[in-house]
Amino acid sequence: MPDRDTTPDHEPEPAGPATLYRRRMAERYNELNPWAADNEFYLELVMSASSVLDIGCGTGMLLHRARQAGHQGRLCGLDPDPAMLDQARVRPDVDWVLARAASMTWDRQFDLAVMTGHAFQQLVTDEDLRTSLAAVRAALRGGGRFAFETRNPAPRPWQRWRGGDPIEITDDSGTTVQVRRHARIVVADDVVHIESVLTVPGSGGEQVAHSSLRFLDPETLAGFLADAGLVIDEQYGDWDRSPLTGASPEIITVARPT
């Protein structure tokens, strides 16, 4: 599943291709990213927990499906992107919160917290990682679990992201945004910085969008979790629960409070 674009908490975006692109992507996100093996993995965990926090919930697809499947407990989705939450809020029987992980203040209210769609990799700085993980730890009840995935850096997946044909996102009115994603990639230590070019054909202008993803190796990841009071219970290399190896595409982790 592609990474979710995010925006600062409660700050309106300036008008332009980037704003239009975010809105159109939110409207078409579920269409462009249909239900897949990663969603099935998380849905199984969600259905076994009475209270669930989905951090970086995007359009709310996972929690929507959980309600449809009969989940009767508390479901809460958190995301910093207002356009995504506009899509999520079509279901009023889930709590939707506009915020980032680091700003969470829940105290032992959830049996399960999840971060899907490689949202964990958007915690780029050490401070953001530590603050966010501490907030996750505080939100979990005793015996709770935190499940998330991050791409395995060993196969260097960013090397396959360069170039590619532009894609176009068109709304019902016919307005189109053209996107050259991953137009430029810079790798600095364990952070991959990505520039994407956004244009509205015929507008005569373009805008460069910047994003960054952090790639933690298993040892460094375990260290951050331990510092936050979390210990790894399960870890896999792919959605079929195969063992984590150097060639695995993912580092899928289920942790619990120590």
Q: Can you describe what's shown?
A:
- This protein has helices spanning 17-32, 37-47, 61-68, 82-88, 126-139, 218-227, and strands spanning 51-55, 74-79, 95-98, 110-115, 140-151, 167-170, 176-188, 191-199, 206-214, 230-236, 250-257.
- It is α/β, with parallel strands linked by helices and 258 residues long.
- The chain has two domains: 17-153 and 214-257, 3-Layer(aba) Sandwich (Rossmann fold); 157-213.
- The longest helix is centred in the N-terminal third of the chain and has 16 residues, at 17-32.
- The radius of gyration is 18 Å and the shape is globular.
Short description:
The chain has helices spanning 17-32, 37-47, 61-68, 82-88, 126-139, 218-227; strands at 51-55, 74-79, 95-98, 110-115, 140-151, 167-170, 176-188, 191-199, 206-214, 230-236, 250-257. By secondary structure, the protein is an alpha/beta fold. A 7-stranded mixed beta sheet has the order 3-2-1-4-5-11-10, sandwiched between helices. The chain has a 4-stranded antiparallel beta sheet with strand order 6-7-8-9, covered by helices on one side.
